[in-house]
User: Fold these one by one.
Assistant:
Number 1:
Amino acid sequence: MSATDQIDGTAVVAAYFEDRIAEAQKEVEEARAALAAAEAKVEQRQTERDTFVRDGSLPPAAYNSATGQPEWALCQWAQTRSARVAFKDLTPAGDTTFNRLRAEEKAVHQWLREHGRTVPAPFGEKA
């Protein structure tokens, strides 16, 4: 009598399905955690916006930078918007959009200066 004669094949196949169910449940738990984190981020951004509307303050920058300057995050955001269009839409309409976004980037820099903030050097030189 071999070792396989003592193993119930139906039980092994059932274990296969149980393992797949457990993997799927783990994916659901991870997705729920990711959703909760994303929802918390939305609430945080709304709070930051409300604070800005109320008193004009910028939140501390929450990104991987040694500067920790909110000005840096704001300038980077403005620059990224125009850069996306520059590389994506090379048409006259895209040029118009790009020029508007570059003007908005300059407006961000001007706003920072008018409110006593420093435009980080990598951004302030060109705009």
Number 2:
Amino acid sequence: MDVANKRTNSILDLKFDSILTENEKAVEAWLGNTVSELPNKIKMKLSFENYMKYLKQNEDITKTLENYNLEHYWETLRSRLNDYVHNNGIQFTSHNLIKEYNQNLDIYLKNINIRTSYIITLFLVLIIMTEAPLIASTDMIDHLECGLTPPEDCQYEIAPFIQNYIDKKVVVFHPELKQFLRDNNKYDMRIR
């Protein structure tokens, strides 16, 4: 039997567990737009509030929220990103269609831009405080893939688009936050 047939047979022989965990049921319902049919206990697994509670258990996140008076923003964001947005799956997008001839189109787009910037900024801060290597530049990998010796300590450089976002959006959101992120990220990523 050739390698291709062995692989095909091994895939065909897979047995899937038909008993789903509560987390798997929640994801399946989200994908199928049936979250409203779930028992409340399982439905809550998809709530933004549930994610926020989990994230807030991280000491660095709590410290950031307290030191920069972001707790009010955290609570505002938590309440605005309600169950409907996060629990109704792909159906949500069809309820928020704006026609190009709408006289308030510029206002809608500006509001979307501002809200999205705030949300992205908050989550970028959370990533930097918990898993800063996720914002790393690809310089080291690029050098290694080309058979070159990477520059010393290049693993601490951050991706240029992240630096640009910090300079243009994070600083607007909270000017001192950039310095805090520079001084307090666990992996000494070079935020300039």
